[in-house]
Structure formats: structure tokens, C-alpha cells
């Protein structure tokens, strides 16, 4: 049925999509496995606005407050521009684990967008990305925030970490930032 709601939404049949979504919530809203399945379908095939209630519900009813649901809530709220709810959800996540690097990174990113430099630095100090973390994106966000807040030496170390750990990365940005930092130091040879 979740696929049907997604299909209705894609076809512009919003009333039907809403009816299916409401029916699903009434019928399966308390079943953790069903909510989990529906949340996955909605995240992959629907709009963030449709996906959020399911992801949030999956987080709320999961026994261990599954972090993947919390992370998905953070991304969806950020994408929707729901800053107040996003900050509340970040605080909720920090109550579960104040040292969670993804939550602190998202907090730093949001506060940077809001111009709250002190909050950015507070959260960046709590970010420790595990050395074996398999994805470059959080490291890139971290490096960019360091770079944008004037912490150039730390940013350079993080960009180097990216290019060393992910040598086949298609994104040219870490290489460009390293070149720019080298040029700033007057090191034209390293900038190449």
C-alpha cells in the first residue's frame, strides 16, 4: 500500500495518496516492523514531507531508538527547512548520545547556516569521526565547516584524510580545497 501512495503522489493524485497514507497509519501505526517497512518505501519513493511522519514514527516506536531513523529524521527536516523541529530533534538525539558524531555534525551544519559561530565550534569540538567510517560525506562536511569557520589547519588535515582514504573519490572538491590552502600558504608546488 505504501507503494500505491507513492504512485498516487507521483501521478498528482494527492487526495488518494493522503487517503492511503492515513489508512496505513491507522492500520499499522503501532506495528514496528510494518512502520519500518513503510518508512523505507516512503523515503525511497516519496516526498520528504510524506516520508517524515513514517520515519519519525519508526524512531518513536523502535525499542532501541534506532539511530538510522533519527539520522533520516534529521536529513528530512533539514531538506524541508524545518529548522525549529530540526534543532529539537538534534537535542533529542544528544540526550540519547551526546557524543554521536553524526548528530553533532548536523548540529554544527545547521548552526553554521544560522550564523551561530559559537554553537558551530561547540559542536565541532564534539565531532570524532571513526577512522574506519566507510563514507566520505561526513568527513567532507566536517572539513568544510572547519574551513568555513577559519580553522584552516584542521580543515587541511581532514581534506587530506579524505583524499588518502578515498583515492577514487569522484568529487574534486577536497583536491581543490587542498590546492587553495597550499596557494594561501604560498606553496605553488603543492597546489598543483
Q: How do the strands and helices of this protein lay out in sequence?
A:
Elements: H1 2-10, H2 14-28, H3 32-45, H4 48-61, H5 67-80, H6 83-96, H7 101-114, H8 117-124, H9 137-148, H10 152-165, H11 173-184, H12 188-191
Q: What labels describe this entry?
A:
0% strand; 75% helix; mainly alpha
H-E order: HHHHHHHHHHHH
- Compute the CA-based radius of gyration: 20 Å
Query: What do the pLDDT scores average to?
Result: 84
What's the number of extended β-strand segments? 0
Major sheet characteristics: none
Q: What structural category characterises the helix and strand content?
A: mainly alpha
What is the CA–CA distance across the termini? 55 Å
Low-confidence stretches: none
> Helix count, per DSSP?
12
Described by the principal axes of the CA atoms, the overall outline is: elongated
Content of β-strand: under 5%
Approximate helicity band: over 70%
Quick rundown:
With 192 residues, the protein is an all-alpha fold. It has 12 helices and no strands.
